[in-house]
Structures are given as C-alpha cells and as structure tokens.
Amino acid sequence: MSLAVEELAVRFGGVAALVDVSFEVEPERITSLIGPNGAGKTTAFNVITGFLRPARGRVLYEGKALTGLRPFQVAERGIVRTFQKTNLFHRVSVLDNVMIGLHLRGRMGFLSILLGDRRVREEETALRGVAEEILAFVGLAHRRDEVASALPYGEQRLLELAVGLAARPRLLLLDEPVSGMNPAEKTTVMGLIRRIREQGVTILLVEHDMRLVMGISDQVIVLHHGRVIAQGPPGEIQSHPEVIRAYLGGR
Amino acid sequence: METFLQHVVNGLILGGTYALLGIGLTLIFGIMNVVNFAHGEFYTLGAYGAFLFLSLLDTNFFVALLGAIALGILLGGACERLLLRPLLGESIETTMLVMIAVWIAMQNAELLAWGGVAQSIDHPFPQAPLILGPISVAPLRLFVFGTAVLLILGAHLLIHRTRLGKAMRATFQDRETAALMGVDIHGIHTLTFAFGSGLAAAAGTLLGPIFVVYPSMGDLAALKAFSVVILGGLGNFAGATLGGLLLGIAEELGAGYVSSGYRDAVGFAIIILVLLLRPSGLFARAERVG
Amino acid sequence: MKRIGPGLLAIVLLTVPLWVGNPYYVHVLIMAGIFAILALSLNLLLGYTGLLSLGHTAFFGIGAYTSALLALRLDWPPWVGFLAAVLVAGLAGYGIGKVSLRLRGAYFVLVTISFAGVIYLVSVNWMELTNGPLGLPDVPPFSLGLPGLFELSIRTKPAAYYLVLAVAGAAYFLCHRLVRSRIGRGFIALRENEALAESVGINGTRYLVLAAVVSAAMAGAAGSLYAHYTRFVSPEVFLFTYTVTMVIMVVAGGKGTLVGPVLGAFLFTALPEALRAVTSWQWQMLLYGVFLILTVFFLPKGVIPTIETWLRERRASP
Question: Looking at chain B, which residue has its C-alpha nearest residue C247?
Fold first, then answer.
C-alpha cells in the first residue's frame, strides 16, 4: 500500500467539506479522484499534502502518519503536488523554476555556499543538467530562458508538471492537470502521465476530463458531498448507478 | 483611588481623539487596502490649519477648527486623486512606499513653512478646571472630548445610515463585486481617503490647543493611530473606537504608575503583543477570513 | 566588455584615495560604503524574500552600540567588537525573525517598525547602559591587531575608506554567492509563491529566518563600522529615517539585484550631500520624498532592472 487515507473529516465553519473519507492508493498505479464540483477533491489533496489539518482521521504513507506534517515535510517524504490554478514562480525563468523544484536534490549548506566550496559549483552544474533533462522531458527545452509568466497557458501547465517532477516525487498528486487545455495538449499530458508512471511513480489524479480519467486510470474513486460513493476500475465506475445519479444531479 | 480615577478620565479624553485618528486610518486600510503612513501628517496639518486660521486670518476659534478639518479633507482627497488612484491594483508595498514619501515630504514642508519652534493655539475656554467630585477637568478638555464623541457618532451614522456608507461597506467586503454592482470604486476611494484625513485633521485640531503644535507631532500620532487600529483589528470601525479609548487610558496609567519615559512604548508594545498573540485584533469578529 | 568593466571598477575603487584629494569626498564615499552594506542587507529581505522590514535600522543600531560599548566599557579591541556586533545583531535578527515571520504584509511591516521603536525607546531611557539621548562620545577608532603586540589604528580617512571598501566588498560577494545558490533560489521561491515553494520541499520558516539573520548580521557589521568611524553613537541610529533611507536606496537602485542597492546607496548618499551645498536640510528631505514618489511612478523596478530591460530590448531588435 502506498497511500492510505483513513476516516478523514474536514469542516469549514459550519460546512462539512469531507465527512468520512477513506481510500487507498496502490503503488505504481494511476488512481483518479473524481466527483462533481464541491465534492471535496481538492480538500483531500490539501489534507494529504499538509496544507490543511483534518478535524478527524489520518493519512498514512507507507505505513507512517503524514497528518500534522507541514507541506515541506510532506514533500521531503516524496509526496509532491501540483495546484488546480496555474501555480508557478512567475517572474523567474523557466529553467530557474525547475531549478527551484530541484531544491531537495541539492545538498550544499549555508557555510559551504558562503565559503565558495568547489563542490557547490559541481552540484550546481549537475543540477542544471537534471533541470535541462526535465525540461526536455515535458517538451519545454526551447523555452528555458524565458520568464515563466510569458509562456502561453498550455506551456505554463507543462512547466508546473516539470517543477513537480523536479522535486523527485514517489507519489505525485496532480490537481486538474489538463483543465483549460486544447485536445492536442491534453493528449501530450496523458502521454507524459503514463511515462511518469512507467518510471515507478505512483499517481493520484483529480480531473474533470472523463476521457482522460477513464483512459489512463487503473483505479477510480468517486467523491460526492464529502463521501466516497464508489471505487473500482474505470469500466465498473462508468456503469455504477450511484455515480450516474451524482453526476446527473439530485441525491 | 482618586488619582486612579483622574488618570482614567484624562485617558478617556485623550482616547477620544486617538479613536478619531484610528477610525480614519482603519477606514483607509479596510476600504482601500492602503497602509497610510502619512496619516500623522494630516493630524499635524489639522493642528497647523487651526493655528493658521487663528493667527493669520484672525477667525473665531470654532471657525478655525472647521476650517482646519476642511483643509484636511481637501488635501486628503487631492492626495488620493493624484498619488493613489494611478497605483490602484499595485501591491500594498508600493502604496506604502508612496505614503512614506508623502509623510517625509509633508513633514519637511511644514518644517520649512513654520520652522521647528513649537506654537501654541489660543482658545476661548476658561483656565480654571471644573471640579466634579473627586476629579477635575479643564473645560477645554471637556469640549475636546465632547466634539470627538460627536464626530465618532457622525462617522458611525455616515457609514451605517447613508447610501455612501453602504457603498463603502460593500467595497470593504468585496471590491470586485461592489464594482460589478455599480459602485464607483474610484469615487469611494477618494471620499474614504478624504474622510479619513479629515478625521485625522480633526484630531490634530482638537489636541493642538491642549498641547503645543510642532512639525514632527504627527510621528507620535501616527504611532498611536497604528496601535489603535491593530488593537481594534485592521478595518474594524467599532474596534478602532474602543481601541482608541483603551490606548488613552493605558497610556495615562502607564505614564502615571510606571515611567513617563516609556509612555510612547505603550503604543509599540500594543502593536507587538496584539499582532503576535491575536493578529486579528482584540475585538475582531470572524468577518475577515484569510 | 564583461571582463573589462569589473576590472576597471575595481581599479577605480582601489585607487580612490590617491586621486581624490578632498577628504570631504572621501568621507562621502565612506558613508556610501557603509550604506551600501546596509542596502545590500535590506535587499536580501526586501529584494529576495520579498519581505518589507521597516525596522531594519534596529540591527544597524544594535551593531553600533554593541561595538561602541565593548570598546568604551570593556576596552575590547574594535575588531573583536566588530565580530561581537555581527553576532549580537544576528542573534537579534534570529529572535525578532522567529516571532514576526509568522506575519505577512502590513502586519509584518508594523511589527518590525514597532521592534525598532521599542529598541529606540530603550536606548533613550536606559541611561546606565547607553548614556541616554546624550549618546556615547569618544568611541575609539577602528584598529586591527592585538593590543600590546602590534596595532594598526585606522584613524585617517583613506585607511577608513579601505576598511569600509573591504567589508562592503565582502558583503557584496557574500550576497552574490548566497542568492545564486540553492538557498537564494529558496528565498526567491518564497517571494514568488510560498505555497508552491513549500510543496517542493522548501522550509519557509527556516529560510526566512536564515535571511533575517544574515541580513541583521550584515547591518550589525555596518553599525560597528559606523560607530568606530564617526566615533559617536546616539539613539539617532534607531530612527525611522535610517530605515527609510535604506528602503529608498534599495527600491531606487533595483530590489532583487545585487548592483542596484549599491548604486542606490551611492546615489542617495551623494545626492543629499550635493544638495546640502545649495539648500537646507528640510529642502533636502522634502526632495527625498519627491524623489521617492517619482521613482515609484516612473522607475518602479529601480534603475538597474530598467537598464537591463532596455539593453535586452535593444539587443533583441537591432
């Protein structure tokens, strides 16, 4: 078991965002979290990655509790997320965005840096190489020197993926990675997600695009009004009566 | 006990004007999201305005007070129109820098105009204090407190009972939605800044005759205004009113029982303690989330 | 060009006392050097982590008082006092950073101002330690070496110039190394997008506190140099005017660049001195305010980034 979410409950003021959510994510698989707007998908992401404290329940990763950790500590354990709205280091170059993402791969400390240790320069060169590789992987090598905010929308979303990958995730949480993209871009991202999984990365995906979800997921979990109403392989989910009812509206 | 009561009364009287200062600042912050470092200068302007009307134009004391407040309103409006409107949508740091610049410029302009010598403002009230049981109050101070209370009530009515006030509150809640609903944001900003500056000028014109008038008097006033606003919660009208009164009393007690050298430390201490322990202010309701 | 420029600049800076005969000009350059250290230190916070600290002069003052008091009361050699000033200011930066970095925006700004205000009031009122508003006169000049063995006293203006140049140079290269490292990228990441920075593993609190400590320590170094150069320290060093001056230098020069604050320090030390000849102090300050407004309106990014953009555009479209 890679990730296990147990009996999560989250309340905002008087509103329950998550009521009692439990699910598990298999290692090296693509698991999708779907549900109508307001179902609690992003809330679940926020709890898993330490941006939100749950009122009840816990999150386990490889048997160890994540609940109570701060976001950077979650990242240190190999769990990296992307955000629903475009989220980049906007005034920084494309290459530097990825270099920032490589933060955890650097080892040099404050004193070595101040003293101008030779190893600092070696590490920088090595990291730059890795950053170039990642940019080539997502297809942004030709944009490396441009400022992130100058990229067209689709490429900004690819850069977000690159920043996430730079942090070397073992579990990658993607929050609507293709929203707002055109069909060609969506196909590219679908291919990339598959290749990331092939490298041994576990993927948890929140997405509204059903073609993408049904096309690449090994497992689909359906949230509705803060509860899990169904889970299983895509084929099973598509014909699940509760799911159909949730998406058609009403309760 | 009698000295304690006397301190409390003196504190309340000072606190009334602190509340005026705080309300002006808190409205500007809440509605415009501008941290107005020049606020103290409008206070100074009020005091010098009264001095100007009295000594040079030889007007009646009460006319001078009104004239000084009008001066504050006019200059405040002009300041918003010329310096802040072009920066609408810029970061809070940018407008903060501009207001720091206005502060420096205004204070030194006042130094150039009046010199560094402190001036006093004549007033028509008798010097002999009124004895009310165990406490004594100078008639001027009573007038100052009464006027401050009237102005606070007036401001409260403006914000809660008029169309303009409604538009101001709407802008405070959600600027974009207010604009969509047809609120003239530019106009609201100009009026808010003019109004806030007018209140600061009123505070200056009221305290001017009690103390003396000098160009850097606004620095301490600004500090007090900021501590009042933080005590009450940024953008909170009722909080600023209570905060002002509390600060006045705390200062009087601190100066009376601890050490007068650290009188002004009360303001800083309030800012630090409140922000670190309860950043939304002492009287915050949960209306500003995030 | 890229090679020749810095070399030429280095030669010019190193030979200044040889061809600048007027000691007053050397004095202005020394003050510019001290302010360059301050501007660089503030820039680390304001330019790279994006935090506007308006209490920065507190660390300058703490450095100045630490160094002066150790020399006057305990007869410590000034260079030891210098190290102590760096240490004490750094510690103060740690303490204040630790408690105030939970806040952001206007709240952070106001807390930093208040800390500086409280320290100012302490320096005025704690007569036994600081001699109150009268200040501490007769601070000994800087000296290197050990008392009794050998001593190199820095009394002349050219000697002070080289000392300040050396420290300012060190501060510049320190900043240079830091901001171009993974730590500096961490600062920039926190400035640009705190949530994303944390989610790729950057410990926000730790890095911001680190920036605050380095920044405060550098300001403390500038304070020590100031104390031993002017040989007088009073509560004035804690005044808000100093902080505002530093902010103007950083913003006008270009925050988030390394050359910008240095250029800003030079301009805004030389400018008031030049104005002093023709106008009164009040006019100078009034113009200061007007300059700041003009900068925000017409050069919002500061001089250096504006020149950089201009050069890039000229190269792009010949």
Answer: B97
